[in-house]
Amino acid sequence: MHDPLPTDSVGIVTPQTLHFDTPITLACNRTLESYDLVIETYGELNADASNAVLICHALSGHHHAAGYHSKEDRKPGWWDSCIGPGKPIDTNRFFVVSLNNLGGCHGSTGPGSTNPQTGQPYGPDFPVITVRDWVHSQALLADRLGIECWAAVVGGSLGGMQALQWSLDYPDRLRHAVVIASTPRLSAQNIAFNEVARQAITSDREFHDGRYYEYNTLPRRGLMLARMVGHITYLSDASMGEKFGRELRDQAYKFGYDAEFQVESYLRYQGERFSESFDANTYLLMTKALDYFDPAYEHDNDLAKALRGACCEFLVLSFSTDWRFTPARSEELVNAMISARCKVSYAEIDAPWGHDAFLIPTPRYTAIFEAYMDRVAREAGA
Amino acid sequence: MRPDLKIIEQWIKPGSHVLDLGCGDGTLLDYLQREKRATGFGLEINQDHITTCMGRGVSVIEQNLDTQGLGNFEDHTFDTVLMTQALQAVRRPDMVLDEMMRVGREGIVTFPNFAYWRLRWYLMRRGRMPESETLPYKWYNTPNIHLCTFKDFEALCYRKGFRILTRTVVDGEHQDRWLSRLWPNMLGQIAIYRITREDS
């Protein structure tokens, strides 16, 4: 399909599976005796390992952030617009690492993996993972790759939470944290949306308390509904209006309950496709990780207090029409950073696409990201 | 560096924590960081300036003084709060000054003097709103909505109980001229004021 590949693409990439057999103890006090992490890397690590950038993925993301797996691939990795030669995260200068987090369903150990104690898939027995656990596992990954200190840890949404957690848990192991379209903690409304998504999954008849693997079935319908709810919250009213309006698939109303409006069939299509490629237990786990994230919790609900130990520099970006994690949530984070005397830069990008705007290049977003990462690269000697 | 920034720079002690309101492309903060180990933030609304600041390693926050104020900064956070050539462009300069003195120990403010003799002459002779090198706008498109004179500013400081530590009067090129020191409100184009709270 892509012959030749775009010149600003990292090209054909191959994921690698790294096996870890030192036990890791999680926030829920349970231990995984061994586990796999699937990663992709782009660019070259320089001699003093100072040019490494970690990309943290969002809710339904994974290790495939840029490039193509084959020439037949129709779509590149999920953040291809920002990672590649000459792009904001310039692979001519940086060594970029992206991974599928623990609990994921794209090769890293997760609910669908075999539980060595039972020989069956973990299913609901897979421990609930927190953002802190992910960051812990990513630090072990850095050790494995010989990276003492990341030039930057970068992430949007749930990925931004991981970047923030890095700055708190391993302050000496990153020089910059780039937190995009994120929040220091979920609001009640955010948690409510996640709960609707989880209820959609767990109330699916095919869910079987999470043991659907053993029944050789999948809670497709529940996962589809969960994704539909999520998808609505990632877009803005304006972007949906522009894309679909009230357009009908056929000319006239049919006075029935089939998908008549274009937006209905779009959501159904997206939901169905998602339910074929994503694991329901992973979706539950990832939304729970979102809900639990609250670094201020252990510091008397004082975010500034939590941030006092952070010594990296921060770039915080928000998007004007993001109503899932509004600019106000980013400002809350920035104000806590100011109060904690962190070095922080902040901008609100005017973009019409809601929360998803962090995946879509706009001139100002690209310019800021590029300028900031250029400086990170210069500091790293890259 | 702009001559006025050079003058200001001399008043910043090494290691100071500084807030620069309307920091532009971050030239001054960048200099203070490198040469004086200063820390701090710039506030700016111009998008290109914000990008430039980020590229050169100056911490910049996109924040509009008119709509957001300085409410996100705690009392007595900064050693110095700077505002060069922006006082006349904010909606409530008096409130901005209050905020500057709340969050900072010292304030440094520069603004164009509307009592400068050329402007007085322009208005007297033509009966129209003055235009000059330092005020290159029409009355209807100027960002300067609260022009004042040195005397006005000093009266406001007096009323608020702010003490003027230093006043340096410069011309349009930000050069210090002996003549303008002689009769500043008539002959000075731009003043650089260093102020502090009376009680501090």
From TrEMBL, chain A:
Location in or out of the cell: Cytoplasm
Site, Important for acyl-CoA specificity: residue positions: 324
GO biological process, one term: methionine biosynthetic process
Gene Ontology CC annotations of this record: cytoplasm
Alphabetical keyword list: Acyltransferase, Amino-acid biosynthesis, Cytoplasm, Methionine biosynthesis, Transferase
Family matches, as InterPro entries: AB_hydrolase_1 (IPR000073), AB_hydrolase_fold (IPR029058), HAT_MetX-like (IPR008220)
Summary of the function given for this chain in its UniProt record: Transfers a succinyl group from succinyl-CoA to L-homoserine, forming succinyl-L-homoserine.
Listed GO MF terms: homoserine O-acetyltransferase activity; homoserine O-succinyltransferase activity
Active site: 157 (nucleophile), 322, 355
Source organism, top-level taxon: Bacteria
Subunit note: Homodimer.
Main location, first listed in the record: cytoplasm
Encoding gene per record: metXS
Residue span(s) of domain AB hydrolase-1: 51-359
Catalytic activity: L-homoserine + succinyl-CoA = O-succinyl-L-homoserine + CoA
Enzyme class, broadest EC rank: transferase
Protein name per the record: Homoserine O-succinyltransferase
Pathway in which this enzyme or protein is active: Amino-acid biosynthesis; L-methionine biosynthesis via de novo pathway; O-succinyl-L-homoserine from L-homoserine: step 1/1
From TrEMBL, chain B:
NCBIfam families for this protein: metW
Cited Gene3D superfamilies: Vaccinia Virus protein VP39
Pfam hit, one: MetW
Superkingdom assignment: Bacteria
UniProt name for this protein: Methionine biosynthesis protein MetW
